[in-house]
Structure formats: structure tokens, C-alpha cells
Specification:
Layout (H helix, E strand, L loop, with lengths): L4 E5 L6 H7 L1 E4 L5 H8 L6 E6 L5 E8 L4 E2 L9 E16 H6 L7 H4 L5 E3 L2 H10 L3
Parallel strand pairs: 1-3
Antiparallel strand pairs: 1-7, 2-6, 3-4, 4-6, 5-6
Length: about 140
Amino acid sequence: MANRWLFKTEPSVYSFQQLQKDKQTMWDGVKNNLALKNLKDIAKGDPIIIYHTGDEKAAVGIAHALGGAYPDPSQKNPKLLVVDIEAVKPLPRPVTLADVKANKKLATFDLVRLSRLSIMKVSDDQWKILEGMAKP
């Protein structure tokens, strides 16, 4: 069974819309130890929610991993990892952080608990709830 993930990005730096144009990208720039630990667990085909930070603060699209994590070729530190991802589809409607915080079933979700974490696991139940919240 595949793991599910949420990747955060500042849309002014790299947005889901840009990922859709590019079709795929190497996801880099992760430095936090817990986020790097999570990155190590990503496998080919794992689904990923793309979340815009900054003023938007909303889950906006779905991507998937094209393979597992590997050392960042632009860095000398082998502990810094990257993963290649591919755009799948935008969410029918964005799911805002306010929406997530208002849903009591998501109170233990890392998006609520660990606000600075850029790559986090999403349980099957959390994924289903987010998908439901994204329906128009």
C-alpha cells in the first residue's frame, strides 16, 4: 500500500500551476530533519497533495512520486535529498488551512500540529477527508 504525502511550497517560488506546465519536477530545497526523514520513505507512485503556503494557505493539487528519494545532485551533502514528482490534477476546489483546522477529524493532522513541516505523511482517513472537502 502506497504512502500518501503533503508537500508544501511557496507559490511565488514554485506553484502547482507551474508544476502542471512543467509536467514534472525535481522537488528540492528540503533541509528540515523530519521532512528529510519523510522524504526517504517516499516510493514510486505515492500520491502527493501540493499545498501552497504564504497568503494562500491551501491544498491545491495532486501529484505523484516518479521514484524514491535520492541525494540532491546540486549539493555536496548526501543527506540532502530530492524526489522527482509529476502533476496529476488540480483539486476541484482549494482546501484552506482554515477549513482543515475547522474539521475536528483533522485535529491530529501534521498540517495543524507541525505548521513548519514541509513534507508530511497523510493517513488514508485524512486523505479521504481532504478529498471530500475539495469537492465543489
